[in-house]
Design goal:
Elements (H helix, E strand, L loop, with lengths): L3 H7 L11 E4 L2 E5 H13 L2 H8 L3 H15 L4 E3 L9 E3 L1 H29 L1
Antiparallel strand pairs: 1-2, 3-4
Length: about 120
Amino acid sequence: MPSHAARRLRTPRTLTPRVKVWLEAEGRYAFGFGLAQILEALDRAGSIKQAAADVGKSYRHVWARIKQAERVLGRQLVAARVGGRGTRRSSLTPEARRLVHDFLAFRARVTGLLSEEFDRHFA
């Protein structure tokens, strides 16, 4: 009777390609999918606090990620108003909106190419 290890080796496993895409500036992490999700949530909610809740992160974490990206990129991503009335106190800068859009399109293209190449080599 074959051993458990031998039986396990005979069971073919389905392979799935994975790739993580991010942008760096001068060798430092600048922007990735997680930050794009945060900024999209902020754009919808108009509030850093609500965006943090929407993505399941703390306000402090979200604010720190935004500020770190702004420092590395050397540009403002979020315009925030302190106090005031209403709930829409924060908004993306036009440059941040373009960055999110372009990054997500780029990431989708890379993922599509990965899938095509995987199918070509492993089908």
